[in-house]
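Instructor's aside before we start: the two examples that follow are unrelated to each other. I chose them only because their records fit on one page, so don't look for a connection. First example below.
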Amino acid sequence: MAKILERKGKKLVYMNDALLKACGVTMEWTQEDLDEFNRCRDDVIYFIETYMKIVHIDHGVVPFDLYDYQKEVIKLYDTNRFVTLKFPRQSGKTITTVGYLLHYILFNEHKNVGILANRAKTARGILSKVKQSYRQLPKFLQSGVVEWNKGSIVLENGCTVFADATSESASRSEAIALLILDEFAFVENNKAEEFMKSVYPTISSGKTSKIFVFSTPNGMNHFYKLWTDAVEKRNSYVPFEIHWADVPGRDEKFKKETIANIGEDAWRQEFEIDFLGSAGSLLSASTMARMVYQTPLMSKEYLTMYYEPIPGHNYVTTVDPSEGLGLDYSVATVTDVTEIPYQQVAVYRNNSIDPHVFPDVIYNLANLYNESFVLVEANNIGAVVCTILHHTLEYENLIQTATKGRAGQIVSGGFGNDTIIGVKTTPATKRIGCAITKSLIESDQYIVNDFETIKEFTTFVRHLNSYQAEEGYTDDICMTIVLFSWLINNDYFKDMLENNDIRKKIAEGSRLNHLFEALIPFGHIDDGLNQSHLLEDGTPDHLKDGAIWESKPIVW
């Protein structure tokens, strides 16, 4: 085996650590050494199983004997640039990644490796495992150590490894060749999104740079989206997961004991690796597990469209306004009510739009979708939105409600002291809306297509006698679905949607017309805006050249 050639005045080890080779140390190699070095370089699995040692919780320092699924992960890492893993707890995803990382920094030159996690402590824990295994390597495989710090290491071959918390500023200016993101589901949504926006261009600019993302699930957040997009082949990541029973030593006895100790929900998230919502959420865990968002037909600025308007179809736009101060969102959700299941076809979501400008967006969106019926939550700033829609923009198909009774009801034509444009959300209307929302979605009678909507439902949880967003989250899109659900429970809409087919009822003639006249007291006027085609860039054709936007300061 290779021997270190001692030279006068030169340190042979780094910082008096007998297990670390110092820089500039000359070694005498035999042909056997060269052959072994080349074999390790060319076969990462051979290198790991032959020379890598790990610290076992029961047995101390032991050779790393890879399970079959760990070998598959190593091969995925070696042959793909973008990989995402979904593993149960304590199944070896981290130490497997450490093995590949160790090989990567030993048999490459001038590569920067970033280890990022939801907390800096977690990232440095991974780096610590890299350092532990590095120290156990024979000297002929080591590169001399330049720096050996708590948060980073630098090797003589020019490779650097650093560990930090995932944030927008982390590694922004670094030319990273390999980026490892651990527990990515537990990084705050806004931080994860901003991080990917700032760092991904740097990574993707190279032809060989890699990103590995792994985590246990934590609800339907950004990691759920990345994972689902990978499974549906909507991004470049290669997904890989294992079942808890694939880990040697785990059987039904292990499952029963673990459930008894941590509970059923924790078991499903940590070991079944299900994308569960928060405890006490409005929708059941099984419902949320099968909800899959769709690829948008068009996404521009704050508007996301999943289906273009279809001639002859009927739509309902439900609106939840906000103050536009960067906190809660102003949301308008468009639902196709032509038949059951109802389809969510478009969502506008913006937390900075002025409430005096928001009516312009509602007006154009509702006109785009066949002059859809519009129901606005009229609490607080919503009353201003309703007033502008009715008096300034003169939108015809606004729904009005009676203020008598705690739950409210849709009323026929004319305005009186007890009627308002829109509906004021009360405990009663919200309770009814939540109950019907749960029934509709869980029975697949309302199809949610939007990712942000699904994400909100995962944190839309019970609070006292109602439901609301968990602290730190929003529920504005959820509330537009709740408003829609309350609306279809109204007697007028029950009649209108009888037999689940409005188009059939339109053919029946006068009875439905009478209902519509009673429902929408302002009439129904065709102003030529009922168009359904999209241009190549995704813009509705009647918006070309700024047609209906000329006097309105809104852009999708």
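Example two begins here.
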Amino acid sequence: MGLTAASLNQSLKASGTVRTLYLALFFLAADLALAQTTSPPEIETPAEAVRVEASLAANPEDISARDRLLLYYSTRNPVTDAVRAARRRHILWLIEHHPENWSHNTWVELIPPPPDALADPEGEAEATRLWRSQAVRPGAAPRAISNAAYFLYFHDRSFALQVLEQARQRNPSDAGLSRTKGLVDALTITGATAVGKNGDPVRFDSGLADSPSAANSREELSVTTNPDVLSGATESILKQFGSLSADRPEFARTLLDLAEAWIQRVLAMNPGDASLGDRFAIAYVQAANFTTDDAQRAPLFERAAAHARTAEWRVSALFQVVEFHFQSGQVERAREEADEILRKAPELYVASQRVYATHIADATLGRIALSQGDVVEARKQLTAAGKLATADLARLNGIRWTLASELLARGERGAVLDYLATVRAVSNKSQVQLDDWAKSIRAGEIPDFTGTADPAPRLVGTPAPDFRIRNLDGKEVALSSYKGKAVLLDFWATWCVPCRAELPMFQKLHRELAAKHAAIVLVDVGENAGPVAKYVRGEKYTFPVLLDEDEQVKTQYRLVVFPSLVVIDKQGRIRSVIGGAVTEDRVRAALKSAESAN
């Protein structure tokens, strides 16, 4: 079973993965692999779902139709009992009739635990019963037993380990069973007790991680000569790293070193297999993409770059470490990496990737030159980067502005205006915003280039659109009820990792400003009250939370990214719109500007 490239993108959106540029590039490989396959369109309306259900009733073995329906039900909002029942029906059918096709890597086939809206205790109980039956069925395929063992590990650990070991004894050379053995060993070592919507562990028990069972798993992995067992354990540790590092950061770093040691053993066992390097590079990139701490993310990309063998994966990792090394003062290392990106760019398979890689390298080399006082070289690199700007680059929000901003600080207005003119035709910024930037530059100012994807610039300076939506207690609240106060609206969602990372900052500001003429108001987009309330109250946040369940307020404010901040002054005018993650200093500055506005 599998998803189309378009379905993968939809899945990422629904599961809350932050759609940064490097993540888009990471999944470009999936687009390429599926580019030659003509896939049916996704289901978008209830009427279409009814038609596909009717077709499936006549032809229940149409796995493609079942995949499409599962994706449709998994992305519905709101999640009703009928949606859960429909999801359950298809998931259980797959377990019963095609257990070898079920995949714990495809989140649409999973039933996540509470408080997720898709949680379904009835379905989970029935799935457990079916998997137990499949695990002991005579003649069961090794792949089916692997799938059963993974699912049952979180429901009946001893039974899962028992049936997996019995299957391995019957099929000692089966790589899939060996990889699952390594995977469950790693789950025991980390103390994982539940998986979330994306299929990765989200809950950990330190008692299990410190238990004799975990110690035994470590010992087995330290002596095994089976590279598939080690590979399964390694990739499992890396998939868990983001969640685990948020729960036990020191423990996570220790396990990361352990996983790298396993990788080195696998590589030593297979010195002629160049594909292994890319496999482990991909696993490190995945771990980095779902890790929110920059200090932990950079070493993951460094390891990815070290293991990558093909240009695509080497360059994808270098995109990240070159910036990290430049910012940390390792300028010569950053220059070497930017030069390597330039050398490898022609080897990239896709034209847009080649353009992006060269654009990034030129901009980075310009910043390095400027940091060393070579303004002439920096101007030259800015010009080269501008000439590479394309519509594809803009679509990925890939046009770089940092070098332009740094050159403006040196008084290089002419070079930056030329750059602005060069990229204007393809930029995803609005012409109004580009005109405003040009006006600011001519006036000797340095515009704020940091906003992502043109976040509603035309609304700045206009009255904030009023709205009336429910809070977590079901009471309707209007924006106009905050009249006379400066208001910061934070548009977020529980699935958005960067959004959640900012909430402690907003709680701090809320406590500080509650008695003053300013208000921090959180607007959750597209979710039901239940899971949002459970999360907010579980974290003991006290700021007001409003529910934009049908996303009409988000549409009113023309927002395109999460998180997004809208800062409104005391007169009810929008002072600024900021797309993407922000620092506390920037939020305070925006609020101060709003409070002092006349």
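Residues 227-247 form the longest helix (21 residues).
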